[in-house]
Write a structure and sequence with these properties.
The structure is a homotetramer of 359-residue chains.
Chain A lengths: L4 E2 L4 E5 L6 E7 L9 H11 L16 E3 L3 E2 L2 E2 L4 E6 L21 H8 L15 H19 L2 E9 L2 E2 L5 H4 L12 H14 L5 E8 L13 H10 L4 E6 L10 H4 L3 E2 L2 E2 L7 E2 L2 E2 L4 E7 L9 E4 L5 E4 L13 H24 L8
Antiparallel strand pairs in A: 1-2, 2-3, 3-7, 4-7, 5-6, 8-9, 8-10, 10-16, 11-16, 12-13, 14-15, 17-18
Helix pairs in contact in A: 1-3, 1-8, 3-8, 6-8
């Protein structure tokens, strides 16, 4: 099975390269009768869009999404939804010089080895530009989950380099270009990024996603656990090298008496598990984090080889973010929404409608 | 799609509960003509088997696997392989007292909420006993990968509580009950576990898996990347709360100039990526780590509620490991093997036989 | 994806060869809380079982099915159900002489070409013995459909050679060894089969399946239409060479004014469509028919070649039915049940519970 | 799993309604490096296109397909291929009057029952207009199969009403508006259709597909047999009510001694099986036939009800073919190509490259 599809019942299949004609996707399995407009999708696309601040790539794409099918008289029909974003600002001339070499840290080498050649324009299919369609598809899931079950899915920048951001205030997240929930760290983030721009370098990031009001019972034993499917979806985002659910790697040093979330009549007394027990949602708030590597598209010279095996030094020209993690926030939210939506439908198929039981 | 299957082309579907009649699985998609005997599977089953040391549960199961189909005259036929392990030491009477309550940190609550009732005997389907079949199926993948491509997949205990084990010596791993590659830490591990046993508590662990000689080109853009599928497979192991590929969460504080693995004629100069670039194997050594939570099956009393909502205190009786992470080593190897095998077949379908190109 | 699985949400995966240790299957996706015992499955297995009349193979298998998992305290748990039938009457010595040659009309040649070798004992995996597990799995679907939606699925012999059986009386079907609903043709059928036995020849058959009380709305546009999935399931039965829905091939000579089923307040005025419109169930009675070829296992000598390409004549020894179509009745019912069950769950996932609005 | 995808490894996912903005599809799993242009797809689209003769609907659509991704410098890249056809001649005003009633023989009733409402413009998603994308996707499969294995897939009209067309001359098929291979029947076909036009009625048809040079070994036991997957693909075409492989329903009256295809050194001596044995291609010519019902879009008045249950009489205005079977020829070819392509990749995954062995 080729890899451009995610989800079993809520299925998203995407196509498109960084500098091709258009990006698109098909969203299948959407329940009928849900109000849906292009504006519903555009909001998150705008949050992800490049060129919105001086910290992100200056590629300017309006990223205007069109709904081509599956919606009639303002409501979903239950049939497949086709979405399209045309590429308008392609500047593929920028990329001619990397045609014959493998940028270190990029997929150039592996695509070439796998397929025998590659679309070298801006990374082709391996470019994070592809994630625009994930955001568009995820927005459908987000809307459905919100509308029918009041599920709220939000992400934020938890760390960039050594600067940690605490989840102090959700309203802050949309008010600064870093998606930081911690206004006390805005200056430190700004200083870090300005320094990196000067040096032509980049930095990694940690992004967290929080889903509230997740119905209890989502997730399928034993392989398609909710956490396993989340790990798959989040790890599939470009540049991600690690995924945590709940306390994540902190559990290595925890004791059982400390980690287990005790239960009282009024609900769970803590949430080390991050809202998932035995691979099934517990009704508690779902929490997940991802680690994003620093982009290799930097102007610090790097050693590599050409397709012919000749050793060269290179720098990456063009428009790039010093911290790709920033724009990953809406993508991580979208992937979380897609997984939850899929499992909501899977649960319904076998067990009927979800119940909002005690927490 | 119900969740008891993993893999697209190399497909493993399992069944069985902790205290049911038997565990079993069907392995589909195995290439024909591969020599295979029950002994090939038994080796890893014995490594995972409980009751082999004083640190693991004293439940004694011979875990003798039978091949019921798909092998003829010592070779795989290309048709589905049925595997069976009968449960012999079930002692379900031990579990009567937890019938009506939700053990904190376990799947009791979520299974009950999802399905309306549950097999309460030893966790039923949510028990890690299910992983025996993963190990058996993984052994087929391991053998195929080793035989045809010389791929070697090995795991080890990287950390338990605060005790870190360095990968000093692979030969050590099979010589101590902790799967530790670091003989200098055996005493510390022993002391830690003995202390926990006395206190009736448990501890988390970090397990790492290393796959050598992985062919270049495995992994499918954009969702079914090799790392995404590994994350899915590893996160689906009981108790896992985090997955890392290569440098994992360390990348958050790294710079691009530091993280990117430069390339020279003789190959990559470092391996921060853990052998995967753009979701596709690079031919470098694949490295992944998982975080395993401390088991909640402890004798330190814990607060919980009954199915009827009454508040109670409970302790877990029965036979349990103070560190479930130890026995996760062969399971993590098996899941890695299953994913690599699946992607080898997927690659072959679309791109033909893999090539062992430069590293 | 290997081919031993059918269904998306109600998933059946089988294993086992004609003369292997055992046959088995895993049924995944069964809703929880459904009463289920081995006796529920045994009834249809007994209907399919060989050796029950002088017209069917004298191989005597009790075909006793065991439920190994997924049922607790008499009810399905929602987790995967493992089923097993041990092979007891294998007599593999009968098959030694066909080891080196390709029986004409059998899968010997194609299996050998595909896999490089084959399990030659009784056809190995290509034997219709495999269908026992379909019948067992289908019995679960049948029970669920009957219990929850009062769906009744029944099959009958519609034709054997030139002898046509009309659907005169359902109660007849279980009272004669031919599954004939037409008592007026029992003598003709008997005479036909006795003649064939004498000649050592075999004959084709047409089997029809009727499903009543099918909820309206089952089936997914555009590829996974209910009729398309039925065609897949029915054509996958050994020896089937044709599938019809409703009027089937008779539509070639029909006019639109004649074929379309007109609608009045009280419902459809006819049922040329066989209960499916646009790939979706209409709530009318579902009707399908299959054509089964005459078995090639006959004692009339036939020309073939050996694996080495040498030309030989052969006859098929052993125990074989002169009309394999007879025993296909419970198999066709089972496949129909599996498809309907799968689509019931798929419908529920996306559109919620079905409505009985049949008109 | 929603139903808009076909294939496991060669995967086609479609979207689009009869009168929506556009039709599109994503073709995933195409091997890299295959030369592909829009012209490759346009040829079959033109063969299927309406408005090409006085016998087919006068809706005039250029059906110009655009390749949006997955092709770079004239060759497939191995990543997903996005295809788009814009709807230009929609005339949705024609359909206002059927908004509130259920056309008999159409999917209006079932879509409404399934989804709660429907896109009533020209049948919405249930319209055969959707098949344009199948033809486009199938053309990719056709090209690949032809290029790499010299497989030739061709269809023809075998019967319309009572007029039977023999396969006398392949070159005739593209030279008459009926896809008839039998020039002796052209007048009879013309007379039949002219009579139907006058009466405002329609007629059914039988279409056959022939695939030559199919490699031996394609097809997966036991459910995903080549014939079963063909039956699924062909039955999923609008208006199809029956599928036959090889001799099809004629086998009911055949004897085993007559049906089995004997083998000699030079190959099979006959082809009753239609090129498939045990669900696996034998290397013989593959033959399949389908029955297409007469369209219900006729001007003979018919009885039906409105959505509110009121009884009415209706006739279908608009542009419709008296025999929809005619245009099914390229669609049936496309579906056959998709299935063969999928199984070629599946075979390669497990068993390596196909061999053209003896026949």
């Amino acid at each position: 099975m080729a890899g451009n599809t995610i989800g079993q019942l809520f299925r998203v299949t995407t196509f498109g390269e960084s500098h091709g004609v258009a990006l698109g996707c098909i969203v299948d399995g959407v329940p009928p009768g849900i109000p849906l407009t292009e504006a519903d999708l555009q909001h998150d696309l705008d949050r992800r869009r490049p060129g919105t601040s001086r910290y992100t790539t200056q590629r300017r794409e309006p990223d205007q999404v069109k709904i081509l099918s599956g919606v009639f008289e303002g409501k979903t029909t239950g049939t497949s939804i086709g979405l399209l974003i045309e590429n308008t600002d392609q500047r593929s001339q920028d990329y001619g010089e990397i045609k014959e070499l493998y940028r270190p840290g990029h997929a150039d080498f592996t695509y070439d080895q796998k397929y025998g050649f590659r679309d070298y324009r801006g990374g082709g299919r391996s470019s994070a530009r592809e994630t625009a369609m994930r955001v568009a598809a995820g927005a459908i899931a987000k809307k459905y989950l919100q509308l029918t079950h009041n599920v709220v899915i939000r992400g934020y920048l938890a760390q960039m380099g050594d600067v940690c951001c605490e989840l102090k205030d959700w309203s802050q997240v949309e008010q600064n270009p870093f998606f930081s929930p911690d206004s006390d760290q805005l200056e430190a983030l700004d200083a870090l990024l300005r320094g990196l721009k000067k040096e032509g370098d980049s930095i990694g990031a940690k992004v967290s996603v929080v889903a509230e009001n997740v119905p209890v019972g989502l997730g399928e034993p034993v392989f398609d656990r909710l956490d396993a499917d989340l790990a798959h979806a989040l790890m599939s985002i470009n540049a991600v090298k690690g995924v945590e659910i709940g306390d994540g790697f902190d559990v290595v040093a925890q004791r059982g008496s400390q980690h287990r979330d005790e239960i009282r009549k009024e609900g769970f007394q803590s949430n080390h598990a991050g809202g998932i027990l035995g691979g099934i949602s517990s009704g508690q708030t779902l929490t997940a984090s991802i680690a994003l590597k620093p982009t290799s598209s930097i102007t610090v010279p790097g050693k590599t080889i050409t397709r012919q095996g000749e050793e060269v030094e290179m720098i990456t020209r063009g428009r790039h973010d010093p911290c790709v993690g920033i724009r990953a926030v809406p993508i991580a939210e979208a992937m979380t929404a897609i997984v939850l939506m899929d499992h909501l439908l899977r649960h319904r198929a076998q067990c009927g409608d979800v119940t909002h039981s005690q927490k």
